[in-house]
Amino acid sequence: MEIKVNLKVFKSEFNITKMDCPSEEQLIRMKLSDIEGIEKLVFDIPKRKLFVFHNADVNIINKSIEELKLDSKLISSIQNEENISSNEKSETILLWSVLVINFFFFVLEITYGFISRSMGLVADSLDMFADSIVYALSLYAIGHAVAKKKQIAKISGYLQILLAILGLLEVIKRFLGYEEVPVFQTMVVISSLALIGNATSLILLQKSKSKEAHIQASLIFTSNDVLINIGVIAAGIMVYFFNSKWPDLITGTIVFGFVIIGALRILKLSK
Fold first, then answer.
1. Fewer CB under 10 Å: which end of the chain, C or N?
2. Distance of alpha carbon 38 from alpha carbon 56, whole angstroms
3. Minimal CA–CA distance to 51: which of 74, 20, 35, 81?
4. Looking at residues 42-69, what average pLDDT do you find?
5. Structure confidence by residue, pLDDT tens digits, 141-165
6. Is 101 within 8 Å of 197 (Cβ atoms)?
7. Do 66 and 136 belong together in one domain?
8. Are both 209 and 230 inside the same structural domain?
9. How far apart are the first and last CA of the chain?
10. Which structural domain, as residue segments, surrounds residue 121?
């Protein structure tokens, strides 16, 4: 006869100073995925907080998080009295919606970026691609082994770095050589459409009112994308007024830098 034992569930709070984007969230999720007895992880990225609901040894959890070197600290561990159920279905649908929007505008921006000779648009498209990777990894994690997810993260990270480096080399080439002024009308129109896409994503994420980490992290990423879109629009306007390629190339260089930083964070997931 099988005897069922109802184990006490504890709620442990961690402060993680260096947790500021979806990459750190995924890193922590994969690190803790092998520990039996973890019921749920709740992230509050803006406040750098992680709440672990578990019946496992809190010292083991704390040690695993410390190994990531994200400047973490165990704040408290008390017996849980909250309902820890989650609405994964609605959040999965939401993530799919944001993923589709990001990937659509990645294709649109990179296509018209080359057509209009705008490195700002090309760089912004790769930033959208980076976001798509993060959302896709979050969705892919459901029902798949950690090792497989790490492999996908490694491939995605290196691909993103390769594309960003090729973009930077093209920027250098255009800085040094003769290049026609980008088509500012295309820059402004396509960036405005991408801005509408990101604004739509932001509204969907805010309406969800979810406190889950991947949703909160998506809010941060999408807010940053809105600022980048505005930057490319501004560069297009300056290209028109100054009849110069420089505003576009400077904007492209800055955004490519952000893309490489994002790729390095994604590569952390594969270690």
1. N
2. 6
3. 74
4. 89
5. 655 555 666 676 677 778 878 888 9
6. yes
7. no
8. yes
9. 43
10. 88-268
